[in-house]
What does this fold into?
Amino acid sequence: MPDIIKEAGLVHGHNAFLEMAIETGIQGALALLITIIIQARMLWSCWKNDENPEIKGLMATGLLFMIMFWGTNMFTDGFRHGSSTLYWLFMAIPTGIAYAAVQKNV
It folds into this structure.
């Protein structure tokens, strides 16, 4: 319905997951969802198990950012136009620290 999208000022009518499924198929949407779940589990595990308050704060900030970013993307497709680059840029350090902590525990 291009007229409604134009009147509402929307660039897109889908959320990020539906858009990924349309562009790459179900396997692309599932790959994105699995990546997000694994990333969130690593951050959560590191937050629970680390005693360093700075690391705990970074993991909590990363988790809150994930909830904010992906919560917003359930209603719009903001995972385009460079915001996906910003997401991976902001999440690189917390995810790297969490990955190192998970690998240390394995």
